[in-house]
Amino acid sequence: MVDVSAKQETVREARAEAFVSMRPETLAMIIQGQHHKGDVFATARIAGIQAAKRTWELIPLCHPLLLSHLEVKLEAQTDVSRVRIESVCRLTGKTGVEMEALTAASVAALTIYDMCKAVQKDMVIGPVRLLEKQGGKSGDFKVNDHD
After folding, report:
1. What are the backbone dihedrals phi and psi of residue 32, each rounded to the nearest 5 degrees, phi first?
2. Where in the sequence numbering do the catalytic residues fall?
3. What is the pLDDT of residues 10-64, one digit of tens each?
4. Can you say whether residue 28 is alpha, beta or left, with left for phi > 0 and alpha for psi between -120 and 50 degrees?
5. Cross-strand pairs, 17
6. What pTM was computed for the model?
């Protein structure tokens, strides 16, 4: 693990996103709350939150972090038959939260797949990416989709 003991504590935040593409019928079933396993979005949201809090156990050499804010939002994009997941992680600390945000979005996507695989096995997860990060020695980063 990287030694962060000499680093200054600063407010750090990261946002990430993931997508799950599926057939319109599968998405409609989720939106209408007709899935036999229950509320797909609520389950995926909780899974993403739990995963972010345990990132240090999943990814080798990640520091255990005390997150002060964690949010996972899911949006049905019916025009393109997919779900967009966005996660936000924040803390005041000595290391960034990019991996926590990416883990939250990824595990939420995996949970949607797991809950819906009996209905549709050929769903596609991706892309998964970091959208933005703030704070820390390396400075801020924001995706520029207009390049």
Report:
1. -80, 0
2. 114
3. 999 999 999 999 999 999 999 998 877 889 999 999 999 999 999 999 999 999 9
4. alpha
5. 86, 129
6. 0.94
